[in-house]
Structure formats: structure tokens, C-alpha cells
Amino acid sequence: MSVGRNDPCPCGSGEKYKKCCMLKDDVARSVASAADAVKRKAEKEADEKAEKAEKAEAERKAAAGEGTGGRPHAGRAPAPPATAHSKSSARASSAAPIRKRTV
Ligand SMILES: [Zn+2]
């Protein structure tokens, strides 16, 4: 027994198959490949970010003359005031993903 596109979906949702599980099957497939692509991209970006951070750190150390001066770390990367309310709504900002872009 096969389910027609316009038959009620066997999952019992009351939707037509083509509007329900057939669509989900389709979406699942495309989402899977999309998720894969996103994952790969994220991994690549993380890699590049780490590399960049390492480089920046080394440059910072060199610029600060670490090893010669007696100045301890004055804290890494002083956080720039992103928004005027970032202080009053610290909770909200900590919940939201912070994306820094240095281009
Ligand atoms: Zn269904």
C-alpha cells in the first residue's frame, strides 16, 4: 500500500501526505546537507579564528614587549562598549550571542 500525495498522511496529522511527512522527508534531506555545509563552514571559520587569535596574541605580545617590561597583562582585549545599554542590560547581552567581526 502506498500513500498518495493527496491522501491523508499516515502519521495521523490530518494533513495531506504531500503537505506533511512527504515534505518533512524532503526537508530533512535538504536540511541534513545544509547542516553539513554549515558545520563545515563553522569548523573552517573556527579554525581561521583560532589562527587569527594566535597571531594577534603573538603580535600583541611583541608590541607590548613582553619579557622586557615588567608590566603584567593589563587584561586581554579590553571589551569595547558595544552599545549604550550593554551595561544596564548585561543579562540580555550575555544571553545573546556576541559576534565580533574584524574585517
Ligand atoms: Zn505526516
Describe the model.
This protein is an all-alpha fold. It is 49% helix and 0% strand. The protein has helices at 21-64, 90-95. The model has no long low-confidence stretch (mean pLDDT 80). Bound molecules: zinc ion (ZN).
Level of helix content? Answer: 40-55%
Mean pLDDT: 80
| Distinct small molecules bound, one entry per kind | zinc ion
Question: What's the order of the H and E elements?
Answer: HH
Distance between the termini: 58 Å
Radius of gyration, Cα only, in angstroms? 25 Å
So how many helices? 2
DSSP summary, beta strand count: 0
Coarse shape: elongated
Which characteristics define this entry?
103 residues, mainly alpha, 2 helices, binds zinc ion
Describe what is shown at a glance:
By secondary structure, the chain is mostly helical. It is 49% helix and 0% strand.
Layout of helices and strands:
Layout: H1 21-64, H2 90-95
This protein binds zinc ion (ZN).
